[in-house]
Amino acid sequence: MMRLTGTRRWGAIAFAACMVTGLAACSSASSSSSSSAPAATSPSAVPSTTSAGTSASTAYAGAVTNYPQYVGGSGAANSSLSPVTIGWVEEQNGPPNESFPQATAAAEATVKYINSTLGGVHGHPVKLSQCYIAAVEAQGTTCGDQMVNTKGVEAIVEGIDAVGNASMYGVVNGTIPTLVGVSADSADNTGKNIEASAKASGFTVTMIPYSATATDLVAQATQMEQAQIQVPDCGFVDCPEMAKAMSEIGDTTKPALSVPLWNSLPGAAYPGGDLPHWMVGEATANLETQADPGVAAYYKTIESYGLSAADTANAFSGVAFGSLLFAVKIMNEIPFASLSPSAITAKIKSYIGPLPLGPTAINCTGTLYPADTNSCSDYDQFYQYAGKGQWNLLEGWTN
User: Per-residue pLDDT tens for 178-200?
Assistant: First the structure.
């Protein structure tokens, strides 16, 4: 979940946000092909200090790099033992701009790694019960039915779902713990939530809605330009349109902070053939910089298990990797004879600690947001794109 924090000198924010009608999502993937990688395919270095003066080593301190130690297991799982089943739900096989096969490829590679090197769960191999949502809300019901009716599903891990979450949650009804690394579904996050968060941080906010099908955003960009800081809260389809509109009106000097969806598109999708020089607040590690030791460890590990370089660099691949390792860690902390969805839920609810490719201290005890006891983190890292594949770290994990 993205939360905006900042100094009081940024006193006015203008949000330009896709207007959701019904359950249509504002954001959608750029391509169903796994070749849709971020603009920079070779992770870059970052400055030794952030713009706020924090050293990069301090910003990255606590990153998870020792995966056997983290999950509490090592060696190969015993294939003769009964498998431990984790549900995997992902938006895939739908329209090209609403399909995320990279995360599924990463999930499958991660399970290979877990079973060959991390000992599975208490020595038992992990297997995925996979279900895909093809951009239709009702298919969330289908996936929910599959999860509750498949014997032995201990937990559900979501990849990136821009639609279907609400229907699936309604079917599962809390009977199986569901781990959502970063959600793009309005059932989990809405523009109103972002607006409320910004106002709570002391900002004056102007919301500038537009249709999900709009292609000319010059009027919205012009209105947004009047603010001291601009937040193009856009997605896979509309971010290039917003960047184009901002370029056309010459809006290049004021800060622009956007959610981490625009930077998962190839640079060719944007004016000039490169990503806009926006800032991004990311709830997961920026996979474009191996200066982060957690990212470097991820690259060194996952590509050895069949994941392509392009898929490895996809942000949603990192979400899949971190969420699955976290699930295995939690299950390894429960005696195998006592393993059950309710036991996993209870263990998660007591967890305070790091997340691979995520914040170094998530808190799942329900105290982070008393009104939303399922939230584990509101931390972000902030980067700014400098062009030609280079990212500048602005601030380390902060809430």
Answer: 998 876 655 555 556 667 777 87
Whole-number Å distance between alpha carbons of 267 and 276: 8
Q: pLDDT, tens digit, for every residue of 76-119?
A: 999 999 999 999 999 887 766 667 889 999 999 999 999 999 99
Q: Which residue, among 153, 175, 180, 154, has the nearest Cα to 165 in the 3D structure?
A: 180
140 and 36 in one domain?
no
CA distances from 58 to 54, 62, 67 (A): 7, 9, 21
Question: What is the DSSP code (8-state) at residue 113?
Answer: H
Residue 239: Cβ-neighbour burial (10 angstroms; 0-12, 13-18, 19+)? buried
- In the chain, which residue ranges form alpha helices assigned H by DSSP? 56-59, 67-71, 101-117, 139-149, 165-172, 191-200, 218-224, 238-248, 293-302, 309-312, 315-332, 341-348
> CA dihedral in degrees (281, 286, 290, 295; nearest 10)?
120
Q: Based on the domain organization, do 145 and 269 belong to the same domain?
A: no
Assess whether 271 and 390 both reside in one domain: yes
Which CATH number characterizes residue 266's domain? 3.40.50
Q: Which pTM was predicted? A: 0.83
318-349 per-position pLDDT tens digit: 999 999 999 999 999 999 999 999 999 999 99
Give the closest residue to 282 by CA, choosing from 372, 185, 398.
Answer: 398
Provide the domain limits for residue 33.
12-60+188-287+380-398
Helix (H, G, I), strand (E, B) or coil at 368: coil
Q: Show the tokens assigned to 77.
A: 């799982």
Does one domain contain both 241 and 276?
yes
Q: 149 is written with which tokens?
A: 């009716």
Residue 151 shares a structural domain with residue 42: no
The reply to whether 322 and 385 lie within a common domain is: no
Strands 153-158 and 178-180, sheet pairing = parallel
The pLDDT, as a whole number, for residue 63 is 94
Q: What is the DSSP string of 63-88?
A: ----HHHHHT--B---TTSPPEEEEE
d(CA 318, CA 313): 8
Closest by CA to 376, choosing from 396, 341, 347, is 347
Query: What's 147's domain CATH number?
Result: 3.40.50.2300
